[in-house]
Each structure stands twice: as structure tokens, then as C-alpha cells.
């Protein structure tokens, strides 16, 4: 009997789950299940003649779940009142549970009232006070606005209201306040909120009242308790069967797919944030005002924009500009007429004398300060003659002058006029412009010009701090022929600081004197920030660099194993090199600042700092480029991105063979063009410039005039042949290889899909979060038999009460109509008749009084 009761209980539990999942079975299926349930009950009655506790539990479960396929407990009571009286434990326990449920319901209602009183503690008439205060606030604001409008006028009021609307709506409501709310909520959730506070007030009240939680974890003490173990055994018997293996496998694969997508999304978010901070560090290392300051400094010296008026009369009498220098004399005239008046002004913009700028190191533009003093630096060749004069002119020309090189430069000391140095002569000792200074003494660096690479030292002549001293120095150098036939390079160097932008500009105007005659001019201005962490953005820059450093460390820790496995340490080492350069630049900046404070009268050579800054910017740009391109790796789950990679992989072989042919043809044209036109076409003057020119021509960007004018007909023929064979034929071969590879990959990828539907997954999560449409995830496809059934609502409690009343009414009606309580045989006949009526094709019409009574009871239950 206990085993049969357990089987019936499991069958009833299975039917309850099916009914709770949807109650969508057809009428015939209901009839079969109902007949099976009744046959099980008949078998139980026939076997024992009495109902045990498990039968009662089945009836109670039928009452609780309102299962149409089970016998209600009220019918069992009516059929066997004596047996129900013989089982006081089960009935008393059920009544106790019912009483406890009522007490719990009252406790829940009281808890709800207490929560309501906590949320809304004010009485009902307080609403009128709130509305009154709101109306008064609006009225006062309106009155003040009208009064201000009368004072300010219509135009000012309109501007005021417009600015207030923009500030309030766009800045405060749309941007500032949401960010504040999110920041405060995040800080509260992470730092202040405790995990146990996640329970709402109602749950806390129910816990305090002693209500047992719905889901309880068993302890070791519970597992040693026989009562708990027996209860657990009964629960296991009523547990649902395991899900289908195919369903489990599908759910497993779906979950693994979701976990992989979540990992990809995390990597993308992490990489995007890292890339944003890396770019912020890269872009904030430079200032957009750098180009403007470079243009100003270069224009003020090279074009003399502050000392020469742009009129025909002024240009006729003006000194030569930087681009007009063609000999030694014009070089001195440029220094006296442009450089000194710009760096050492004595008059304001209107021509009047200004005592404010005299002797204060301000330049012609009062925004720029000359740091220390300007200087002239010359590099010469030694008298050792390594060149030879042609035998046809040896009787006319006795000597020749060599080109400059770092190994043949002059490094001896001289007196004025380049006479032999005499240590006892005061004029020789007190003239540093005639004495050689090594690069290490002035912290100079080699400088690469068009004719050669020049050392960082030389014969240095400082111009002083005032205009008078600068003019006197330049005149002394001019009178003693400071520039002569052995001069190969003259540097005009000075340092300018703009306090408004916190930028330094180190200017180097190079004059290269060619040993064959003539001058090559090359101006260069390098602008940089000496101290990054000053000003209003100092804290922001410090935080930015710190966060970027943390991201870099995390990224390197995550990538170092993979890089070592794949032997791809290029970007890893490059990132380390960029960090070393960045730290070195900061150290050099601090050393320069220390040098400026310790030696206030010496010239500040920013050459080392400029070199480190240029290297740092070069490597920083390279790192940003590499990490930006590497972002494509995270998008490799996309079909299009993977197709692009497969196209390049498929075309690698043909492109390799094509590259060999292309470079052979290209360098053949390079050699022919250089040898034919290096003397007449400027862009072909060196092999490197020839490669650059022909490479640009391959992209159909060229200057045809230089060929037609400089090279004549041969240049036109060369241009036509090159464009035909390289730009048209070879480039089209390259495009053909790419197109064929793309077609092959596309045809083989007809059935290929995206590895991870990231966009669809994220959109589904957002829809699920905001309740838009269906979630579309794995949880929505779970079998209804295994779906979670939430706690019962109040309407279900009311339905059970109605069911009990209807059952009681039907029992009394049977008693009145028959005159005696129904016996077991009568119940058996009723079950047989209801079973026969359940199998009827017309929907189960019942015959007889008992069938009609049970059908009425079942109908009332469904209603």
C-alpha cells in the first residue's frame, strides 16, 4: 500500500507539473489521464479497503493544485468519513498547516502595512502642504524672472533664458545629473552596500516572524536527522524525472556559447578602454597649439614678419630674408637686420620706445620670452687637403677645399681673424667665438643637414642679453671675417618660452655653405612642453598616465605567455622601449630644469631633449598604430573579418611572386631615372628621392611639368613608359590577384556564419533587461516540465477556498438526495461512470446521477 501510494503521489506530481506549465493538453489526453488516476484509486480501494496517509496527501495535493486529473479530498471525506476520523495525525497536520498559512498571511499583511508606513509616514492632508509649497516656489520663481526681465531688457532676458535652458536641459539634466547618479550608485553598491541588504523589507519581516525560507540548504546535522532524511526521501520520490539528454546537450552548448561571447565582450570592452587611455596619453603629450607656435617663430625669423612691412617701399630697403641668403655678407645682414631686432626689440609695435620690454628678454611679440640668450655656432673644415686639383689647372689653382665630415672638422683654438692662438694675448682669451667647444661641454647632438651631418660643438659666439651687446658682437665677428672659405655650417640657435601655453620652442636656422659655392638654407623649430604636470590639467594628466600604466601592466601580464609561446615579441618589446623612452624623456626634462636653475647665464641647448621627444613621439605613434590594428584580432569572430584574413592568406603565395617581379621592374626604373635625370630634375637628385618620386607616381600622383621642362623629350618618354608598365599593367595584376582570391574564398564560404553573434546577443540582453519583446536566450527554450513555478498568489488561495465550499455543498447535496452518506460501492460506481463519460467522443457527457454530480464538481473546479 505504501509503494502504491508513492507511485500515485509521483504520478500526481507529474500531472501537477504538466498542468502548472500550461494546461494545454487536449480533451482526449485529459480523459485518459483522469481514467488512469481513477483506476489507480480504485485499485487502492480494492486492495486495502482503507485509505492511508499517502492517499490523503494525494487528495490534499489535488485540492492545492486544483488538478483536474486527481480525486479531490472532499470526495474522499464524503466517501469514507470513518476512515478520515481514524487518521487524526494527517488531518491535524493538514489543519495545522492551513492555520499556519492563515497566520503567515496575516503576518505578511501586517508586514506590508509596516513597510507602507515606513515609505509613506505622512498623513493624507500633507499632500496639500506639498502642493502648496510647489505652487509657491513656482510663483516666486516666475515673479523673480519677470522682475529681472524688466531690469535686464528683452534682449538680455532672451539670452539669459536661452543659456539657462541649454545649461539646465542639455548639460545638467541630460549629461551631468545622470553621470552623478550613476557614479553615486556605483560607489554605494561597491563600497557601502552590504550583501545582506539585498533582501527587501518584506523578506526581513517574514524571516523575523519565523517563516521558513522557500529554498533551504541542508547542513550536516540535518543529514543525520531521520525525520529530515525521510522528508527528503518523499521529496525525491515526487521530484521530476531528469531532462532529456538532447535537451541537456543543447543547453550545455548554448551556455558554453554564451560564456564564450561574454568573454569576447569583456575582452573587447577591456581593449577599447585600454586603447582609449593609450590614445589619450598619446594625444595629450602634444598640444594643438604647437603648430601655431612653430609657425609664428619660424615666420618671425625666416620672413621677418615683425621688422619688415609688406609694402613695395619697405621691401626695397629691407634687409635680406632667410631665403635670400646666398653669401657671407647677406648672412650678416640677415642677422643684424632681422634676428637681432626680433629677439632684442627696443620699440613697441607703433615705433615708440618701450621701457617695459627693454632688457627684460621679451621678444618682439610680448607673449614670447627669450630664454637666456641667442648664439651663433660655426663648424669649419681643417686645412688638411685631401682633394686634388686637376692637372689641367694645377698651374692656375694651387689648393682646393674639402667637404665637411665629422672626422675632418676643425677643432683648434684661434684668435680674432683666425690667427694662431696666443694664450698671453687678452683678445684671444676673452673671445670664445674663436675657440672650439666640444659637443659634450654644451650637451650638443649631431645635426643632419642636406650636405652632411654636423657635430654638436663648434665655435660658439653668444649674443648677450641686450640689443647693444648683440649688435656689438655681430659687428666684431663681421669685421674679423668670422665666416670665410673654410666655413661649412653656421647655426643660429635660440630658445623661446610662452608662459600662456607652457611651451618651449627651440629654433635652429642652419646655413650650409657648399664647397662648390652657394648656400643651402634649412630652418627648423621644435616646440615641446618641458613640464607636463603643471597647470589646470596637471591632476588629469597624472591620473591619466597612472591609469594607462596600470592598463599596460595588466595587458602585458595577460599577453606575455601568449607572446612567448608564439615568439611574437615585437610589439611587446616595442611597448617596453616606448616606456623606457618616455621615462628617459622625463628624466632629461628634469635635468634640463636643474641645469637652467644652476647656470642662469649659460645657453640652454635643448637638442638632447628635442631628440628624445621626437623618438618618444615616433615610438608612441607606432605603439598606437600597432594596438589599433590588433583590435581586428578581437573582431575575428565576425564572418567578414575572417574572410578578409582568409583572402590575404590565400593570396599570400601569388602576391609573393608578384612582389618579386614588381620590385625588379620598379628598381630598374629607379636606376634609369636617377642616372638620366639627377642633374636636371630636383626630385631625382638622389637615389632615395628617386624612389620616393616613382613610388608616388605609382599612385597616379605626379608633377608632369618637371619632366617636360627639366628633362625634355626624354623625360616625357620615360614618364609614358613608366606609367604604362608599372601604374597600369603591374598595378592591375595586383588587383586581379586580390579579386581572384576574394572570389575563391567567397565561393567556399557560402555556408559560413558568424562564430559569435555578439550584436544579436547584446541586443537580446538589453531587450530582456528592459522587457522589450522576448529574451531569445536559452532560458526561454527550457521544457515547460522543468520550468520554475513561483509562489502562489492570493487569487489561488481564494480559488482553493471556493473549491472547498463547492465540495462541501456537493457532499451535503448528496446526503440530502440519497438520505444516507455515500458508501464505498457508490463511490466506485461514480468513478466507473465518470471514466466511461471521460472516454466519450462528445467531450465526456456523464450518465447517471453520480456522473452528473462529479462532472458538476469538476466543472466548478475548472471555473
TrEMBL record:
Give compartment(s): Membrane
Disulfide bridge positions per record = 387-400
Stretches of Gly residues bias are at 836-851
Membrane topology is: Multi-pass membrane protein
One GO BP annotation of this record: detection of mechanical stimulus
Transmembrane regions listed in the UniProt entry = 125-146, 166-191, 268-285, 533-557, 616-636, 657-677, 716-740
Which GO MF terms are attached to this record?
calcium channel activity; calcium ion binding
Name of the protein in its database record: PKD_channel domain-containing protein
Organism from which the protein derives = Macrostomum lignano
Q: Taxonomic classification, please?
A: Eukaryota, Metazoa, Spiralia, Lophotrochozoa, Platyhelminthes
Amino acid at each position: 500500500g505504501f509503494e502504491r501510494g508513492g507511485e500515485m503521489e509521483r504520478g500526481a506530481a507529474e500531472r501537477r507539473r504538466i498542468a502548472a506549465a500550461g494546461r494545454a493538453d487536449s480533451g482526449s489526453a485529459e480523459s485518459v489521464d483522469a481514467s488512469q488516476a481513477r483506476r489507480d484509486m480504485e485499485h487502492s480501494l480494492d486492495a486495502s479497503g482503507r485509505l492511508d496517509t499517502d492517499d490523503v496527501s494525494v487528495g490534499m495535493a489535488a485540492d492545492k493544485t486544483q488538478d483536474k486529473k486527481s480525486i479531490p479530498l472532499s470526495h474522499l471525506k464524503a466517501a469514507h468519513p470513518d476512515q478520515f476520523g481514524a487518521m487524526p495525525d494527517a488531518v491535524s497536520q493538514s489543519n495545522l498547516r492551513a492555520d499556519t498559512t492563515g497566520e503567515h498571511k496575516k503576518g505578511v499583511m501586517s508586514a506590508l502595512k509596516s513597510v507602507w508606513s515606513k515609505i509613506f509616514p505622512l498623513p493624507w492632508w500633507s499632500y496639500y502642504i506639498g502642493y502648496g509649497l510647489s505652487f509657491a516656489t513656482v510663483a516666486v520663481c516666475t515673479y523673480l524672472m519677470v522682475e529681472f526681465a524688466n531690469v535686464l531688457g528683452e534682449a538680455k532676458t532672451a539670452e539669459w533664458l536661452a543659456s539657462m535652458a541649454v545649461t539646465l536641459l542639455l548639460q545638467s539634466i541630460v549629461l551631468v545629473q545622470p553621470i552623478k547618479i550613476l557614479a553615486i550608485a556605483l560607489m554605494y553598491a561597491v563600497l557601502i552596500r552590504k550583501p545582506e541588504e539585498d533582501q527587501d523589507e518584506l523578506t526581513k519581516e517574514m524571516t523575523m516572524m519565523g517563516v521558513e525560507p522557500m529554498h533551504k540548504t541542508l547542513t550536516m546535522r540535518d543529514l543525520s536527522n531521520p525525520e529530515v532524511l525521510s522528508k527528503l526521501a518523499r521529496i525525491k520520490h515526487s521530484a521530476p524525472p531528469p531532462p532529456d539528454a538532447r535537451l541537456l546537450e543543447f543547453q550545455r552548448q548554448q551556455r558554453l556559447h554564451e560564456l564564450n561571447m561574454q568573454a569576447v565582450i569583456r575582452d573587447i570592452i577591456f581593449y577599447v578602454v585600454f586603447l582609449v587611455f593609450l590614445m589619450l596619453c598619446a594625444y595629450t603629450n602634444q598640444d594643438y597649439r604647437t603648430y601655431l607656435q612653430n609657425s609664428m617663430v619660424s615666420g618671425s625669423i625666416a620672413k621677418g614678419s615683425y621688422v619688415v612691412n609688406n609694402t613695395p617701399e619697405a621691401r626695397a630697403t629691407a634687409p635680406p630674408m632667410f631665403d635670400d641668403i646666398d653669401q657671407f655678407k647677406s648672412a650678416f645682414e640677415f642677422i643684424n637686420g632681422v634676428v637681432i631686432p626680433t629677439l632684442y626689440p627696443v620699440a613697441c609695435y607703433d615705433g615708440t620706445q618701450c621701457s617695459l620690454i627693454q632688457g627684460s628678454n621679451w621678444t618682439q611679440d610680448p607673449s614670447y620670452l627669450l630664454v637666456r640668450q641667442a648664439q651663433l655656432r660655426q663648424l669649419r673644415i681643417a686645412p688638411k687637403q685631401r682633394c686634388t686639383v686637376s692637372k689641367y689647372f694645377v698651374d692656375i689653382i694651387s689648393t682646393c677645399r674639402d667637404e665637411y665630415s665629422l672626422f675632418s672638422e676643425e677643432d683648434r683654438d684661434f684668435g680674432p681673424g683666425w690667427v694662431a692662438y696666443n694664450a698671453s694675448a687678452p683678445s684671444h682669451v676673452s673671445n670664445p667665438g674663436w675657440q672650439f667647444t666640444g659637443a659634450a661641454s654644451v650637451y650638443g647632438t649631431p645635426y643632419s643637414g642636406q650636405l652632411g651631418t654636423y657635430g654638436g660643438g663648434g665655435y660658439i659666439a653668444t649674443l648677450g642679453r641686450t640689443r647693444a651687446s648683440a649688435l656689438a658682437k655681430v659687428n666684431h665677428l663681421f669685421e674679423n671675417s668670422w665666416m670665410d672659405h673654410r666655413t661649412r655650417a653656421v647655426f643660429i640657435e635660440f630658445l623661446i618660452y610662452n608662459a600662456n601655453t607652457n611651451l618651449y620652442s627651440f629654433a635652429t636656422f642652419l646655413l650650409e655653405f657648399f664647397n662648390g659655392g652657394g648656400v643651402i638654407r634649412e630652418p627648423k623649430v621644435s616646440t615641446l612642453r618641458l613640464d607636463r604636470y603643471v597647470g589646470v590639467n596637471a591632476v588629469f594628466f597624472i591620473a591619466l598616465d597612472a591609469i594607462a600604466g596600470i592598463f599596460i601592466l595588466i595587458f602585458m601580464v595577460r599577453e606575455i605567455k601568449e607572446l612567448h609561446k608564439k615568439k611574437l615579441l615585437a610589439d611587446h618589446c616595442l611597448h617596453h622601449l616606448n616606456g623606457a623612452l618616455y621615462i628617459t624623456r622625463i628624466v632629461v626634462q628634469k635635468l634640463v630644469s636643474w641645469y637652467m636653475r644652476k647656470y642662469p647665464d649659460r645657453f640652454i641647448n635643448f637638442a638632447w631633449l628635442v631628440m628624445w621627444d621626437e623618438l618618444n613621439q615616433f615610438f608612441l605613434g607606432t605603439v598606437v598604430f600597432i594596438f589599433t590594428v590588433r583590435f581586428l584580432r578581437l573582431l575575428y569572430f565576425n564572418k567578414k573579418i575572417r574572410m578578409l584574413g582568409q583572402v590575404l592568406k590565400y593570396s599570400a603565395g601569388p602576391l609573393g611572386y608578384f612582389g618579386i617581379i614588381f620590385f625588379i621592374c620598379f628598381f630598374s626604373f629607379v636606376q634609369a631615372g636617377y642616372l638620366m635625370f639627377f642633374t636636371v630634375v630636383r626630385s631625382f637628385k638622389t637615389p632615395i628621392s628617386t624612389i620616393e618620386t616613382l613610388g608616388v607616381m605609382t599612385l597616379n600622383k605626379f608633377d608632369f611639368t618637371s619632366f617636360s621642362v627639366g628633362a625634355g623629350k626624354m623625360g616625357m618618354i620615360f614618364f609614358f613608359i613608366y606609367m604604362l608598365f608599372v601604374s597600369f599593367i603591374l598595378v592591375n595584376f595586383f588587383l586581379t590577384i586580390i579579386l581572384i582570391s576574394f572570389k575563391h574564398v567567397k565561393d567556399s564560404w557560402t555556408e559560413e556564419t558568424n562564430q559569435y553573434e555578439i550584436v544579436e546577443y547584446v541586443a537580446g540582453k538589453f531587450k530582456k533587461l528592459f522587457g522589450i519583446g522576448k529574451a531569445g536566450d536559452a532560458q526561454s527554450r527550457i521544457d515547460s516540465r522543468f520550468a520554475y513555478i513561483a509562489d502562489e498568489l492570493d487569487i489561488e488561495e481564494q480559488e482553493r477556498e471556493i473549491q472547498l465550499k463547492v465540495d462541501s455543498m456537493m457532499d451535503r447535496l448528496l446526503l440530502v438526495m440519497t438520505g444516507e452518506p455515500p458508501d464505498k460501492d457508490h463511490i466506485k460506481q461514480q468513478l466507473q461512470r465518470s471514466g466511461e463519460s471521460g472516454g466519450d467522443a462528445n467531450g465526456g457527457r456523464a450518465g447517471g446521477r453520480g456522473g452528473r454530480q462529479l462532472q458538476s464538481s469538476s466543472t466548478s473546479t475548472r471555473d
